[in-house]
């Protein structure tokens, strides 16, 4: 029980820290007020169309979706994720030298922590990650919990082949 509670606290800390780091990302931010620069910060800004576009993000980067890689750490380092960004899960088809993989999404934080595959929804089977990979668009502003469901949740239960993301609302203009 303490181990599961510890995982829950760790995930909560990671999500909170990532949201805090994004909010603090502006290097010129300070606690004081500087009204001399008010208009340039909050006035009419030309919209940066390149910033507005959703991104395609390969889960795991060049490592792709495989057993033994820490995806929670990857998600923390790859944040922030925004609404309408696309997560791309790429993995090899099952063969004699590799484990099969799949993509499951959990409805709740509790089932994510327990890796309760029976309460999760399969998004991609072991064959759907080949080629261009399986694509999942972050369309809702809510936490998304992903894991590999193969071997009845073994890949999830070891703690590395699962991750959570909370997509943020994309800013309307780029901060100075």
Automatic annotation (TrEMBL):
Single GO molecular function: electron transfer activity
Gene3D superfamilies the record matches: Cupredoxins - blue copper proteins
UniProt-listed InterPro entries: Cupredoxin (IPR008972), Phytocyanin_dom (IPR003245)
Signal peptide, first to last residue: 1-25
PROSITE patterns: PHYTOCYANIN
Location of the Phytocyanin domain: 55-169
Superkingdom of the source species: Eukaryota
Short name of one Pfam family: Cu_bind_like
Keyword entries, A-Z: Signal
Protein name: Phytocyanin domain-containing protein
